[in-house]
Structure formats: C-alpha cells, structure tokens
Amino acid sequence: MPHHSRPSPPWFLLPGILLVGLMAFPLAVVLWRGATDDFASAISQPAALAALRLSLLTSAISLGVTVTLGTPLAYGLAHWRFRGRRLVETLVDLPVALPPAVAGLALLMAFGRRGALGPLLGAFGISLPFTTAAVVMAQIFVAAPFYIRAARIAFAAIDPHFEEAAIVEGASAWQVFTRVMIPIAGRGLLSGMILMWARAMGEFGATILFAGNLEGVSQTMPLAIYLGFERNSSSALALAVVLIVLSGGPHVCPAQNRRQLAGERCQRVSRCQAHSSLPTHSVTSHFALAIRNAICMIRANTLHLNRASAMKSLAKLN
Predict the structure, then answer these.
(1) Shortest CA distance to 188 belongs to which of 212, 141, 153?
(2) Most C-beta atoms within 10 A of its C-beta, which of 21, 225, 233, 310?
(3) Rounded distance, CA 219 to CA 85, Å?
(4) DSSP-H helix ranges across 173-232
(5) What is the mean pLDDT of residues 97-115?
(6) pTM here?
(7) What 8-state DSSP symbol labels residue 174?
C-alpha cells in the first residue's frame, strides 16, 4: 500500500530550498548570460571548437578505458573476498576526495620526465606530460572511481541465486559475467558511466598540472574557460553553457522517461514470458532456458517489479 505522510511545514523545507537555490541560481545565470551573449559566434571560434573536440575525444577514450578495466575490478570487489580488499577499495575511492591539484602532482611525479617512471619511459622514446595522452590519464585518475563505485554497488545488489542458477545450468564464469551479471546491473553501470563521463568532461586541476594548457593538444573546455576570462569572456560563457548541458543532460533524460518505462513494464514482462516459453530442442536447451529466465528477471528488475512478483514469474517459467 502507498505510504502517505503529512506535509512538511514550511519552516522545515526552507533550508532545503535555500540550498537548492544556491546551486540553481548561479547555473541559471550562466545559462542566461551565455545564451544571450551571441552564443553562436562565441562557440564557433577556433579555440572554442578545438577545446570542445578535444574534451569529447579525451572523455570518450577515458570512458572506454574505465569501463573496460573498471567493470571486472568492480565485479571482483563486489563478489570476491581476498586479503587486501579493503586497501584496494580505499585506493580506488581515494581520488574522489583527493584535491585535483594533488592528483596532477602525483601523476607528474610518477610519469613526468624526472618522475619515478620518467627515465624508463624516456628510454622507449615516450614522453607523457603536456600531451593528449596526459589529459586522458588525468581524467581516468580523477573520474574512474565514480564508475567503479557505482558498478560495485550494482553488482553487490544482485541476488546471488541468479549466478548460482546459471552455474548449475552449465554456464562458464565468462558467460555468467557477460550474459547474467552485466545485464542485471545495467542501470547501475549506466549511471556510473554518466557520472564518470561528466566528471571527466569537467576535469581541470589534474589536467593543467600534468598535461598543461596547450591549445589543440591539452586545452580542454574547463581550461579554455579559465583562459577565456583573460581573453574572451563570451567564449568562456559559451563553453560553460555547453558543459552544463552535456553534464546535466544525461541526468535529466532518464528521469523524463521513468513514467513511460513504468507504463510499458507489464507489456515487456509479458513478451519476456512468452519468449521464454518457446520450445527448445537443442543440446543447450537447458542453458538457453536459464539465460532466458535470467533475462526475464533482468527486465522485471529494470522495470521496478517487486521481488515477489518477479520470483512468481520465474517459477512459472520453470
């Protein structure tokens, strides 16, 4: 039954309204000033376009590397118990609280020309500081924990019975990971990807220390905004508007589709059940049935079905 609570008194909501206003009003002013200050001509300037292209390119590469390397790490941290696990979790989460300037200094001391690995990299003709690769490394260092944390929580929330059922039906560890665990944790992984990408797009401190501020090479949008206040404020405002839209857009769009998804959940679950009841005659029929059953539960979980109805659906399929 829905829970109805008494409306909160105005004096109780006032602190929250003040805090929301503190965050919303400056953003609204930037959006208004940027949109009314000849946005088209400001964003079409060569320096602004170069910063936009570089930010999109480096953040996309950072996201791909983080998802590829971070997803198995998050799964291992969520499901495996090993000595030093707490230390690994602390190291992974540390960049979230670490000042970006300290992160940039750490990268420079580790991979700089005079850093710990600088001579070794120099022997192979590799120089990382003040390059586009340095921008990617800075973004990964600072933003990857956002994805890993979200993915770890998503994997940890999965009912272990799904994994056990797939293993009993003959699925390998790779099949369990790719066909069962990742689809079930899909919403959490997507949320982590959005957070990581938005944080990478806005990275400033570590980038300017480790990669510098070279136009077309390491000057991303946040660095172009910083430099734009000294040269062209309209360009800085235009880039700020783009950053706000790119960072906030992925968070707004899923919220707008929640009601539509909720309205379609019964139809999707029915289609899932109908597909799962198809006859199978191959040698791998049991494994295929287990996978289809898991997919049915995945969709039910994604569409916010309660646990009781989801388990009832799975029992009918079996």
Answers:
(1) 153
(2) 225
(3) 37
(4) 173-175, 182-184, 186-201, 205-210, 221-231
(5) 92
(6) 0.75
(7) H
